[in-house]
Design goal:
The complex is a heterodimer of chains A (118) and B (117).
Chain A lengths: L4 E3 L2 E4 L5 E6 L6 E7 L6 E7 L2 E5 L7 E4 L6 E5 L8 E8 L12 E2 L3 E5 L1
Parallel strand pairs in A: 2-11
Antiparallel strand pairs in A: 1-3, 3-8, 4-5, 4-9, 5-6, 7-8, 9-10, 9-11
Chain B lengths: L2 E3 L4 E5 L4 E3 L2 E3 L6 E6 L5 E7 L5 E3 L5 E5 L4 E6 L8 E8 L10 E3 L3 E6 L1
Parallel strand pairs in B: 2-12
Antiparallel strand pairs in B: 1-4, 3-9, 5-6, 5-10, 7-8, 8-9, 10-11, 10-12
Classes of the chains: A mainly beta (118), B mainly beta (117).
Chain lengths: 118, 117
């Protein structure tokens, strides 16, 4: 399977604990995105990397959230001191930069990690 | 700011009938529009996109979408619905942002499609 993969697929944790999710993008995709999706809503952008550089962060990404893409390949999203409001599906997507404007790019999504904070 | 609206929470259609899932957009500049489908407990699967060119865009699984600039719409269509098309459908627009180099998508709230046998 050469699609975007995410691990774990499900995570249950207690409030106050730290959690880390991993995303492996489609190989050779140089852009990687994290989104969060809550029940009944569309995905909301969290952050985006081009290679290893984190180029944009949403205001949704509080200080408790941190994301890395150390070698420009896989990425991790860590949530510290989880709160019940963090319960959501965390989606990763990747794309390949095409051209100067990148207008032809398409983001391909992984299956998501569903987080439940008790 | 860019945005999309999906006015229907749910659409019901009989198997074999044509289906339409509505999306309207608001953008400054040229719109880059996308449709994705989401099955239960799964990520989003890309269906089709409009960047430029023909107003009728053909995509995966027999879906197509019609871009209408005057009505700022990008409705998803299929001539003959299948029960297996039942899923959650999202319209998205690429956010051009205030500066160049912003590539995130802004999604609608989704429309649940139910195809009845």
């Amino acid at each position: 399977d050469t699609g975007v993969s995410q691990n774990p697929r499900h995570k249950i944790t207690k409030r106050g604990q730290n959690v880390t999710f991993r995303c492996d993008p489609i190989s050779e995709h140089n852009r990687l995105y994290w989104y969060r999706q809550t029940l009944g809503q569309g995905p909301e952008f969290l952050t985006y990397f081009q290679n290893e550089a984190q180029l944009e962060k949403s205001r949704l990404l509080s200080d408790r959230f941190s994301a890395e893409r150390p070698k420009g390949s896989f990425s991790t999203l860590e949530i510290q001191r989880t709160e019940q409001g963090d319960s959501a599906m965390y989606l990763c997507a990747s794309s390949f930069r095409q051209g100067i404007s990148g207008r032809w790019e398409t983001q391909y999504f992984g299956p998501g990690t569903r987080l439940l904070v008790l | 700011a860019q945005s999309v609206a999906q006015p229907e929470d749910q659409v019901n259609v009989a198997e074999g009938n044509p289906l339409t899932v509505k999306c309207t957009y608001s953008v400054s500049g040229n719109p880059y529009l996308f449709w994705y489908v989401q099955y239960p407990n799964r990520g989003l699967q890309f269906l089709l996109k409009y960047i430029t060119g023909d107003n009728l865009v053909k995509g995966s699984y027999g879906f197509e979408a019609e871009f209408n600039k005057s009505q700022t719409s990008f409705h998803l269509k299929k001539p003959s619905a299948l029960v297996s098309d039942s899923a959650l459908y999202f319209c998205a627009v690429r956010d051009m942002g205030a500066t160049s180099g912003t590539y995130k998508y802004i999604f609608g709230t989704g429309t649940r499609l139910k195809v009845l046998a």
